[in-house]
UniProtKB/TrEMBL annotation:
<keyword id="KW-0963">Cytoplasm</keyword>
<dbReference type="InterPro" id="IPR004511">
    <property type="entry name" value="PAPS/APS_Rdtase"/>
</dbReference>
<keyword id="KW-0560">Oxidoreductase</keyword>
<comment type="pathway">
    <text>Sulfur metabolism; hydrogen sulfide biosynthesis; sulfite from sulfate.</text>
</comment>
<dbReference type="GO" id="GO:0004604">
    <property type="term" value="F:phosphoadenylyl-sulfate reductase (thioredoxin) activity"/>
</dbReference>
<feature type="binding site">
    <location>
        <position position="209"/>
    </location>
    <ligand>
        <name>[4Fe-4S] cluster</name>
    </ligand>
</feature>
<feature type="domain" description="Phosphoadenosine phosphosulphate reductase">
    <location>
        <begin position="47"/>
        <end position="214"/>
    </location>
</feature>
<keyword id="KW-0411">Iron-sulfur</keyword>
<dbReference type="GO" id="GO:0005737">
    <property type="term" value="C:cytoplasm"/>
</dbReference>
<comment type="similarity">
    <text>Belongs to the PAPS reductase family. CysH subfamily.</text>
</comment>
<keyword id="KW-0408">Iron</keyword>
<dbReference type="Pfam" id="PF01507">
    <property type="entry name" value="PAPS_reduct"/>
</dbReference>
<dbReference type="GO" id="GO:0046872">
    <property type="term" value="F:metal ion binding"/>
</dbReference>
<dbReference type="InterPro" id="IPR014729">
    <property type="entry name" value="Rossmann-like_a/b/a_fold"/>
</dbReference>
<feature type="binding site">
    <location>
        <position position="212"/>
    </location>
    <ligand>
        <name>[4Fe-4S] cluster</name>
    </ligand>
</feature>
<dbReference type="GO" id="GO:0070814">
    <property type="term" value="P:hydrogen sulfide biosynthetic process"/>
</dbReference>
<feature type="binding site">
    <location>
        <position position="129"/>
    </location>
    <ligand>
        <name>[4Fe-4S] cluster</name>
    </ligand>
</feature>
Amino acid sequence: MNAILQQPLTGAVAEPSPAAVLDRALRDAPPAKVIEVALQTVGREHLALVSSFGTESAALLKVMADVDPAIPVVFLDTGWLFEETLAYRDTLIATLGLRDVRSIKPSEETLSQEDPDRELWFSNPDACCRIRKVEPLARALKPFSAWINGRKRFQGGARAEIPVLEDDGAKLKFNPFANVSREEIEAIYQLAKLPPHPLVASGYLSVGCMPCSSRTALDEDARAGRWRGRAKTECGIHTTKTS
Ligand code: SF4
């Protein structure tokens, strides 16, 4: 159980967990308020934001930077990212004044043992995501007791019901954009004049790794281009316990 919001043992009647109580209190809170509460709850040294520097990432990074630009930002550089995403990361660091972006790479030893020919994305994408995303993220988050991410309910699928605050038993996970609409995100981009991800102009509504991202048609969901043609819809970083 997370040590920060530990639930006391109070007898047979099941009480809502402290995380559930805080989630309820934050249900209608604006994203900046959620980030402020995350900071107050665990302190900056125990809090990180995880960003893919994808097509909607600048909005959450902007809200975070307005609250505290020194919150550590963890970026998973999987070895399969588009050059445009790496350039976008650098653009947003400069534009938003982000002070502590940590680009995390997979273990070279694991790559040479499990994916020496760089074909695991095709033969076993779950294993590829494990060694290139899930395990590196778990290592990167070790010093932290809580993390912030940018999932939205409007993205559907496994994300349609996410609360504002989750406790996976290892870490707290704050979802400041859980309630936010696509229109509100677009408004943040417009108001702050945030630069778009360079690949949006060529038809990518959601950008991840090169082999597993494709353009989307006008009538498709934003994430339809991810792992196209496969049953896979999540890489595992949100479905795996973080320690
Ligand atoms: S998204 Fe694709 S390339 Fe990236 S880690 Fe997962 S399977 Fe591998």
